[in-house]
Amino acid sequence: MAQLIGHQIDESTQVTKTLQQLVDEVTKINHQITGVKPPSAEFQENGKKQIEKIGQFRGRPLHYPYVGTGAGNGVYVELEDGSVKLDLINGIGIHLMGHSHPRVMAATVRGALSDIVNQGNLQPNREYGQFLEKLATWAGRKSRLKYAWLSTCGTMANENALKMARQKLSPARMVISFKNAFAGRSTMMAELTDNPAYKVGLPEYNEILRVPFYDKKDPQSGEKTLRAFKEHVAKYENNISVFSFEPMLGEGGYQAAPREFFLPVLDFCKEKKIAVWADEVQTFSRTGELFAFETLDIGSYIDLCTIAKTAQVGATLYTEEFNPKPGLIAGTFSGSTPALTAGMEILQILQEGYLGPEGRIQQIHKKFIGMLNHLNETTCRGLLTDAGGMGLMIAVTPYQGKKEQVDALLKRMFQNGLIAFNCGKDPIRVRFLVPAIIQDADIEVAKTIIEKSILEEA
Ligand SMILES: Cc1ncc(COP(=O)(O)O)c(C=O)c1O
Questions:
Q1: In principle, which of 95, 241, 278, 366 could form an S-S bond with 169, CB 3.0–4.6 Å?
Q2: Could you please report the per-residue DSSP string of 75-99?
Q3: CATH architecture observed for domain 358-458
């Protein structure tokens, strides 16, 4: 029987065997990485040079003295200075399956055997359709989302969502968004982002209206948000296109909110025909379900949803009503073939015991939060407060949450072998984007480093 050449490559036992041998060999070498290590005298100078080179050629030094060698094992990653770090930030949330996951690596290599590097919206290969089907079908189980459009980052996925909302509700132009929101780095997403430091010198477009996010210390929080929302709508009646929100505030401080907080606002959006757009660029695949709108059970309200990061590509999901007119969204790239094959493999692995109330993600959440709270109650008494978040997005406030203290602590943790990052403004918090493959023993290693670092900087 005739067989397409592309399918012959897929099914070639020689290709599959060679690919597996390649991954096995690399995995065997990577398995030498077993835990945190300081920089070695032999490679320290090499690491320093590489870091300086990056600063020299991009005109701005690296935030951390971090240049990876390309080798890793689970939560551990090897750097060019010979050190091994416990990575709990993962490229700000990209490497959900940690470093050098054999199945992710195999899927990536598979993708690399394709005839092209980058797929495009004009001439896609099979993986493009497979990815769209996976996303749209999954999202459609708990929402009215029906379609997906690929892009190469969260910012671009967000731009597409905003354009779809504005086109549908044209000529309405205003956007309602939470205080301390983050939406990306393009001109418009910098506008949607509530952080003046990210738009110094840029013109203001005055198209964003802010409402406060949930404040668990304030019993009136929900009412205040709804009131602010209603005031904006009264003032800009018929000129509000979309409510854009992160189901859990990400860069803004890793604050979660209960379903009951969102419902009145979402009902009001429906009443006023304001589009509802969930920016799940950071929450996607992290909160215990694939979409945080599933975890929060608010899927029926969602008109638009954006994802990126762990998917390895960006995507905008949309309902029938928001399907844009031809010409509104396009673009050359729709993701590299290895990114698409790896992204699909990550989603596949997630389905194997990670999701659901009893899944591994929720187990990790409880263990990690328990570890932080235990430190706060024992050796680091009162120095690690308000541990919280959702699923694999976890943050804690060290000391009094002041910038200098947190910066110094993060640097200290890096030196001691653990990579985390900050979020929020007042207080500034330490956040962990924990990979799904973390083991309980790794959480114990994290505990030791956090404890040591906290006490050293106290
Ligand atoms: C909620 C949210 N939206 C959008 C973005 C932007 O995504 P990207 O950096 O891939 O453009 C981010 C990135 O951190 C994010 O957290």
A1: 241
A2: TEEEETTS-EEEESSHHHHT-TT-B
A3: Alpha-Beta Complex (3.90)
CB of 335 sitting under 6 A from ligand 1: no
444-457 pLDDT tens trace: 999 999 999 999 99
281 lines ligand 1 (CB under 6 A): yes
159 lines ligand 1 (CB under 6 A): no
Q: Is the CB of 181 under 6 A from ligand 1?
A: no
Tell me the domain boundaries of the chain: 1-25, 31-85, 112-350, 358-458
Task: Give the domain 112-350 fold.
Answer: Aspartate Aminotransferase; domain 2 (3.40.640)
Give the pTM.
0.97
Residue 180 near residue 425 (C-beta atoms within 8 A): yes
User: 231-240: long-range contacts (C-beta < 8 A, 24 or more apart)?
Assistant: 232/174, 232/176, 233/268, 233/272, 233/274, 236/174, 236/209, 238/172, 239/171, 239/172, 239/173, 239/174, 240/172, 240/174, 240/175, 240/176, 240/209, 240/272, 240/274
Summarised one tens digit per residue, pLDDT across range 111-127 is 999 999 999 999 999 99
pLDDT in tens, 236-292: 989 999 999 999 999 999 999 999 999 999 999 999 999 999 999 999 999 999 999
